[in-house]
Amino acid sequence: RYISKFRPFVKHEAEKNKSGKWKTMGPAKVAVPSPNDFLQKHSKEPKLAPKKKEQDDKKLPALSVPRRTYRPLIHVKKNFINANAVAVIKGVPKKPRPFCVDTRQGDKYLLEPSGLVPKYIKKNNYGVIPKYVTRRNEEIKKKEEEYEASILEQLKKKAMKPLSDEERTNILQALKKNWEEINRAFLSLPVLTDTRYKKMHKEELELKLAQLEHDIEAIEKHKGVYIANE
């Protein structure tokens, strides 16, 4: 059988570290309690200090709430029988509640909460236009007025403006001066127009002269001239 070479070392360490007797079980001799000191009833409950004489002599304050044993004296002199008879004689008889019958067997239900009675016409706000509708109508009316104002302003900007006499004469003089210059250029053209460029240049000058003559004639013919504001 195998025997470790460290066996004597382990045995020596075990004996060295071995503790004394009764280390985990308490001391060997314990004082035995006396038989006269047995546990009695209520012996472990906390005991209150005795009351002082000053507290005993004080009187209890008067209670503002009546005691449970208090019974007030009730003196009733009313004759309930006669009072009930008078109330019945003078009372107004109850009106029958309207019912609605909807079947052959006579099944009926109250007419008022059924929804068949037009109670809504008795409301204070019946027939009154709601506030949100009036507010919406005012907003729509305001937007329409703003739109009309913007259109009028645009029309005023685009409206025709009359020319003064001084401006009319200045425009006439300028048109006549342009006509003279273009006419001079037209008269200085060569007699023979054998190229395409010469033909196009001659047609362009003729168109300008015709347009200037038309404008001069229109301004001279009408004294009141209006121009558009762009």
TrEMBL record:
<keyword id="KW-0206">Cytoskeleton</keyword>
<dbReference type="InterPro" id="IPR027012">
    <property type="entry name" value="Enkurin_dom"/>
</dbReference>
<keyword id="KW-0966">Cell projection</keyword>
<feature type="compositionally biased region" description="Basic and acidic residues">
    <location>
        <begin position="39"/>
        <end position="60"/>
    </location>
</feature>
<feature type="domain" description="Enkurin">
    <location>
        <begin position="135"/>
        <end position="227"/>
    </location>
</feature>
<dbReference type="InterPro" id="IPR052102">
    <property type="entry name" value="Enkurin_domain-protein"/>
</dbReference>
<dbReference type="GO" id="GO:0005516">
    <property type="term" value="F:calmodulin binding"/>
</dbReference>
<dbReference type="GO" id="GO:0001669">
    <property type="term" value="C:acrosomal vesicle"/>
</dbReference>
<dbReference type="Pfam" id="PF13864">
    <property type="entry name" value="Enkurin"/>
</dbReference>
<protein>
    <submittedName>
        <fullName>ENKUR protein</fullName>
    </submittedName>
</protein>
<dbReference type="GO" id="GO:0005879">
    <property type="term" value="C:axonemal microtubule"/>
</dbReference>
<keyword id="KW-0963">Cytoplasm</keyword>
<feature type="region of interest" description="Disordered">
    <location>
        <begin position="14"/>
        <end position="60"/>
    </location>
</feature>
